[in-house]
Specification:
The complex is a heterodimer of chains A (591) and B (191). Helix content of chain A is 60%, strand content 5%. Chain A has 16 helices and 5 strands. In chain A, the strands form 2 sheets. Chain A has a two-stranded antiparallel ribbon. Chain B has 191 residues and is mainly alpha-helical. Chain B has 2 domains: 1-40; 42-186, no CATH class. Chain B has helices at 2-34, 36-39, 92-108, 132-146, 150-159, 176-186; strands at residues 43-46, 49-53, 114-115, 129-130, 161-162, 173-175. Chain B has a 3-stranded antiparallel β-sheet. In chain B, strands 1-2 form a two-stranded antiparallel sheet. In chain B, a hairpin with a 2-residue loop joins β1 and β2 (49-53). In chain B, α4 (132-146) packs across α5. Chain B is elongated, with a radius of gyration of 22 Å. The N and C termini of chain B lie far apart (69 Å). Classes of the chains: A mainly alpha (591), B mainly alpha (191). At the A-B interface, α1, α2, α3, α5 and α6 of A face α1, β2, α3, β3 and β4 of B.
Chain lengths: 591, 191
């Protein structure tokens, strides 16, 4: 670890902190439909959208109607994506003449992008046409994020409103999130990325004549090695920056290229790298301020922000430390940190990012439900790879996905308040609302569906050598980590991977698709039920027995609850995977 | 329910036109106007022919060139098929690959430790850079092969070394393709 590395981490965090308040306040105004400076541009567009779609913007929805609207929109946009993937060979903007996407892969991908997961079982540059990337993948990057924000705002309204039956209008919240927040930010951000070298064009792939031809040995069809000369390099192109911007800002994470933000055309410079990391946390960080403002308890918003920050620093410290260490199984190489090189574990990392920026990126992308990567997590040291895995297992509540992070965290807040109530033997209250049996049941449903999907699917995959284990890219405990990571990433709607797992098989496409659906919709519905139930409650004036939710004691309790729930659930699986691998690595074992 | 399905269909169509078509087209128009070269991938030309992109690495294994890092993209630096090795730290394939590369590199530098980036595959398989340490490790070989002085080659390396961006972001690095093109230029070769 170097002081310059830590300086970058602190600058990153400082930027998130500074922007949280102005953006959070702006978003509160947007969702409360107060006047903002952007109305001049977006209000007319908003009106046109409502007129064309027949949406009544004054209509208020109960939690059930809000859920139905959300589910219908997800279903329709999912089917549209499936159709376009299957028909892409007949559609324009396909200069490489890529064929139709296979049914199981198209199914997996349509779910993946609709649920804000962006798990990718395919190599985009050889699978998806420019049109498919723009019209479906990039589109879902906007709307899965906008839906996430709408849901978070619905929950905040549930907390803030009293004796109300409704939570707002799903269509209006989604439209305002995408128009007022995502669209203008992305337009500027995409151009900043292009200024760093992210490409944005519709060229067919370019052919470059290599400066030095390569001699390449491949396996021929008869199984014998064939030596050939490669004299050209095909350079994939495409409208990358427009997708890159919303991929990061919407915590989606689906790369335009296979290697995501490690690819020089997606993330060319250390500055573009800093922008990309910052844009992951920007909206989730600000939403805590939106929470504080809309519930008229700004200090509570900051207490939640503080809990997130503690967990963030814990993760980045471990990841950065682990990746700075030399791999004891590699000999004859210099893995030290000097002024001439970053040293450490450089397998799967880019020279321009080195160790600090790669470890920070991996932490940030899994704290949030982003899942973009600028280095290969599969090649991280055992404890370096443990951090992203644990971040996702904690429910991605450390700033978290756009919207999803906040409502996930508020579920833990309800749980923390409930536990505090049990400790003093009083009915728990949260911001003046009594937390009762129904709320706790729904909260526990949310908390339990998550590990059930992760551990259940992992166990099934492990028991099937032909379907589950045949896809492994690494042996030993690392193999278990690969499968565990896949189901954790998809259930948590993250989308990053231990990429050694060959996931483009029927089994993985279908089971991972199911995990993504469970992890999004089965968790959203109980969350909206809590929101709806809270909204209709009376306000209870605070008494001496009320547990205050804006103190450092609350922050510590919240962090404790998150860590204990995560540890109790996942420690056994983790100890057989990355923890065992760490011990065996130190003992000099390889697989 | 029925009303919501109709709304969802209309909403998907209308917003797709705006966010899936208009937005990327507007960004493309602006990007092509403001940063044309960057938006098109910073392609490098020699004698009118495209020889690569400034920010996409190429495979260099000949002794007269600075070598780039090992690559797991296709058959190596396949810029239409980016990939890392995805080998875990305890994977025998990783350990064997590194040992093989180390043995080859040590032949030119007996006893010296090889800078780690020179024997590890990058995440993208397209890393355009090596560390200054990895460049320095190769200076003597390249100079001898090209009958150039070590100082002259070191000077070229220095010219293609970028420090941390804004003084603190990322890591110092040497662009291999540009360095090798410049080397060819310096020794008058057009190979």
């Amino acid at each position: 670890m170097t002081s310059n590395g830590w300086f970058q981490i602190l600058v990153f965090f400082g930027l998130v902190l500074v922007c949280a308040k102005p953006l959070g306040v702006y978003m509160a105004r947007v969702f409360e439909r107060e006047r903002t400076f952007a109305d001049l541009v977006f209000r007319p567009i908003e009106r046109v959208i409502y007129r064309l779609t027949g949406i009544d913007e004054s209509h208020e929805m109960r939690w059930t109607e809000y859920s139905v609207a959300m589910l219908m929109f997800s279903l329709v946009s999912l089917l549209a994506t499936y159709a376009i993937e299957r028909l892409q060979h007949l559609l324009p903007l396909n200069p490489q003449h890529l064929s139709a996407v296979a049914p199981d892969l198209a199914f997996n991908t349509a779910i993946s992008f609709t649920t804000n997961t962006n798990w990718q079982s395919y190599v985009p540059e050889t699978t998806m046409s420019y049109l498919t990337q723009m019209l479906t993948l990039s589109y879902h990057n906007f709307f899965s994020a906008a839906v996430g924000m709408a849901l978070a705002v619905a929950l905040i309204r549930g907390i803030a409103r009293r004796e109300s039956k409704t939570l707002g209008n799903f269509w209006v919240d989604t439209t305002r999130a995408s128009l007022w927040v995502l669209l203008p930010t992305c337009t500027i951000y995409a151009l900043l990325l292009v200024s760093q070298g992210v490409i944005q064009n519709f060229r067919p792939y370019d052919q470059a004549k290599l400066v030095q031809s390569q001699t390449v040995t491949t396996m021929g069809t008869d199984g014998r090695p064939v030596t050939g000369i490669v004299a050209t390099q095909t350079i994939a192109q495409g409208p990358v920056a427009s997708q890159e911007a919303i991929k990061m800002l919407g915590t989606n994470g689906g790369g335009f290229f296979n290697t995501n933000s490690a690819h020089p055309f997606e993330n060319p410079t250390p500055l573009s790298n800093m922008m990309e990391m910052f844009s992951i946390f920007l909206i989730p960080g600000a939403l805590t301020v939106t929470l504080g403002r809309m519930t008229k308890a700004p200090k509570h918003g900051w207490a939640v922000f503080a809990a997130m920050s503690i967990l963030f620093f814990l993760g980045v410290f471990i990841a950065y430390y682990a990746e700075s260490q030399p791999n004891p199984l590699l000999h004859g190489i210099d893995q030290h940190t000097t002024t001439m090189q970053a040293g450490g574990n450089m397998e799967g990392k880019e020279v321009r990012f080195g160790i600090a920026d790669s470890a920070l990126f991996a932490t940030v992308t899994t704290d949030a439900s982003c899942g973009a990567v600028n280095g290969m997590h599969d090649s991280f040291m055992p404890l370096g790879g443990l951090v992203p895995l644990v971040n996702m297992m904690l429910g991605e509540v450390v700033f978290g996905g756009v919207g999803a992070g906040l409502y996930g965290m508020l579920i833990f807040v309800v749980l923390a308040v409930f536990l505090a109530g049990l400790m003093v033997g009083r009915t728990p209250e949260y911001l003046g609302k009594k937390i009762e049996a129904f709320d706790v049941k729904m909260t526990m449903l949310y908390v339990l569906i998550f590990p059930l999907s992760i551990l259940g699917f992992t166990a099934v995959a492990l028991m099937m050598p032909q379907l589950g284990l045949a896809s492994l890219g690494n042996g030993g405990p690392h193999g278990l980590s690969e499968i565990l990571y896949a189901y954790t990433s998809t259930t948590a709607n993250n989308g990053s991977a231990f990429g050694g797992l060959s996931a483009n098989t029927h089994w993985y496409n279908l089971s991972l698709g199911a995990a993504m659906l469970l992890g999004r919709f089965l968790m959203i519905v109980p969350m909206l039920a809590v929101a709806g139930n809270l909204a209709q409650k009376k306000l209870v004036p605070p008494s001496p027995g009320t547990f205050p939710v804006h103190t450092s004691l609350f922050t510590v309790l919240l962090v404790g609850v998150i860590l204990i729930v995560g540890a109790l659930t996942f420690f056994p699986a983790l100890s057989l995977g990355p923890i065992l691998e760490h011990l065996l690595l130190q003992a000099g074992k390889s697989f | 329910m029925r009303r919501h399905i109709v709304t969802a269909v209309l909403y998907t169509v209308v917003t797709t036109v705006l966010f899936g078509l208009a937005y990327p087209l507007i960004v493309t128009g602006l990007a092509q106007t403001m940063f044309r070269d960057k938006a098109n991938g910073q392609l490098l030309r020699r004698n009118g022919e495209i020889v690569g992109s400034r920010i996409i690495g190429q495979s260099f294994t000949a002794p007269e060139y600075f070598h780039s890092r090992p690559s797991a993209a296709g058959s190596g630096y396949d810029a239409a098929n980016s990939s890392g090795s995805n080998y875990g730290p305890t994977n025998k394939k990783l350990i064997d690959r590194v040992a093989g590369d180390v043995a080859a590199l040590r032949a030119e530098h007996p006893g010296a430790e090889v800078p780690v980036d020179l024997v590890t595959a990058s995440g993208s398989g397209l890393d355009p850079d090596i560390t200054p340490a990895a460049a320095e490790f190769q200076v003597a070989r390249v100079a001898a092969q090209r009958h150039l002085s070590v100082d002259a080659v070191r000077g070229l390396v220095a010219r293609h070394t970028q420090g941390r961006q804004l003084g603190f972001l990322g890591e110092p690095r040497v662009n291999v393709l540009e360095l090798n093109l410049d080397l060819d230029h310096a020794s008058g070769a057009t190979k």
